Records
---
Amino acid sequence: MPLSRFLSLLELKTIWFSRLGALQDKYECTNPKGPRGMLLSVLKNNPDLKEAKTPFGISYNDLLARTDNGWSGDGWRKGGLVNCWFIGKLESEKMWKNYGDDGKGVAIRSSIKQLASSFELPGGFGKISRVGRVNYVDFGTCDLGARGEDMVRVAFIKDKELFKDENEVRIVTLNSFHSGTLFPDGNSPSTFGVAPEIKGMHIKCSLQELIQGVVVGPNTDWNFHMLIKQIIGRYGLTVNVERSQIPPWSSIV
């Protein structure tokens, strides 16, 4: 993560969860053979159709917008939140480049068990939350069959052509404010309930339980390493801080 996100984590004692439909991947939480998935497939193969009229009298772009507003059966795009991790014993240069501020950020190390137990998910929220590996599929041929309306299952598939190198494990929960959540600006909600239009929210957690270690990026220097150690200490965490084992790929400015 970038340094700013790490500082937010320490200050708020939370982890950021994005709404599934607000992520960069346009296929996120989409049933490949469902209405939304089939429409995306048509537009992928026929990009010139975006502004063309459908048999329903509206453009394909407008129809796609309607599928994102509850018409497609892929309701978890609005109703679900996700926090994503890379799973593996070795670091990934690609992950540092894409998500770690081009190697100038930090990474935190945890475990599946800690992901499943360290968040504040009161009452039924914990029961409906899931932790698991992403299943990478061919979106052109994947058919979920009778389980195509299983929103949780759909939340754990991604296009293998684009994302298989991410080797992702994720925790998915309900997109709803409760006593363990904060607004994106860090304030506590005054009322609880589903928030379909929000991009995401912070969820409180035990940082000492969640974080096994912190790794500073390959494109950081010794001063950055020492600074992170001092900052973590000020927040009362007993966490080992390591340097990345990946060689730097650019000079430090």
---
Amino acid sequence: MAAGVEEPVQIFLEQMELGASLFKQLNNLATFKGSDELQLTSMLAVISHWRSKYKEDFAVVHDASSNFLRGKEMWGRITDNNVPPQMHRAGDGTLTEFPLKVVSTTAVNSKDSYSIQFCDVLAGLTTRHFSPRTEGEDRDFMNKVVAASLKHLTYNGIRPSHAFPDEIPPKKKTGPDVVDRMVDIIFGPHNKKT
């Protein structure tokens, strides 16, 4: 298909084929349980945001119905308080101090927590606000919600942008990049099982 179309569509089809090929090489489809990178990355971004403002320890409470629980072991490694003290540069250039000082992570059923229910409502509102499909009366309503109060909230999220690698495949960087540093945090000597 990629050979039969022109750029920029060709680039996307080539990247999809490369991703599928690498997935097959690096994963066993029979035992693959899914990918939690989006939730894990979002949770890390949230904690990093608050960590930059407060030095106190954090108790994380999240919705028990989320897939975040599947990445519990990875989250435990990232939030391990035995991580050597260091500054970790995120993809947006901000720095986060490790250890993250997360003392607990608790899953709570939203039926039992008004706070989790409120977070669900906010997530739904922001999703609706950023959707290009929100039009007409729905857009008018969202504009009123934003003007009334939603504009005062800070948010962290992943949205499409026009930033693309300048060559395909992207050029490798030298030295420890963000991924290398995160791997050190997750799988460093402090996390070796004896």
---
Amino acid sequence: MMSTLYERLYRLVTDTSEEEIAKGREDPHAKAIPANFLRLLMVRTGSKVADRLASPKTTLAWLLQALGAPPVFTGIIVPLRESGSLLPQAFLSNFLKRFPVRKWAWSLGAAFQGVAIAGCALVALNLRGVSAGVAIVALLVAFSLARGMSSVTAKDVLGKTIPKRKRGQLTGWAASASGLVAIVAACLLFFLDEGTESILGYAAYLGVAAFLWWLAALVHIRVEEPAGETESGLWKGSQPS
């Protein structure tokens, strides 16, 4: 029953015909594509929305200002998050490619990203001034390291589970959905008053972002990823895990 539902939804969001779906049912690996597509769509949409809700350019920057942290902290959080996720990728890439199934690494990274952002929400509720700035910067370092782990494995999992001509559609749907949510979320931020109300609002945004990362991690675990190198597993008969 669930497989039929996945197939119907898959046809709605892609240009796949009923004939292609029927033909795919004969291949145990192709049969998993509709479910994998929708799971990865949920994962990518959720993680993109979480990224926007916890953006260092808006939410975190405004939060630091509301907490009375010195301006130097606001200035370093954007480059810190971006560079911090790039630096460990060279080491992680070589290490993670040893594993035939890499969806677990993405989920682990997403779970830790959620922990780091939940920590920022707790900082908002309990710390002020320099202490708040130091704590948020430290948590962003941890966030960036976890983000690097997820970034290294994201393309591998996508390449092994979704046909090349469908990947653009998946990315497009996720970007559109997350962009719409981001616009609504950004508009709501402007209605927050200064003081305690704004701090609680920022903390709520971060709490929702953390939940979305944890939810994405759980959904990603359910992706049926064939064991093997990028793209080769799905098309050469490796068993999904």
---
Amino acid sequence: MNDSRATTILESGLRERNLDVIAGAYGYFIRKGKAGSENALIQALEECGAKEMATDFLNCQNDKLREAARVWAKEHGYNISVLRSDDSNPLWGRTK
């Protein structure tokens, strides 16, 4: 993301635990890979999550998010699986 206005809004949403912002931009936060943001991401999954979000958490190469995705999927009756990592999957701490 190259727009400083957008990143300011997203970072503010993370600090304030705005779950709608976090859920809507979870891919940005995964790619950013900010230490300590996992709990906010997990809370967003629990409150606003969807199968696609859980699948991305499972495949993002962050152990805490991976486990949260498994728990969420089981609680919601979904079967999600590990996919091959490619450019379309947000990976923890990898902006490209």
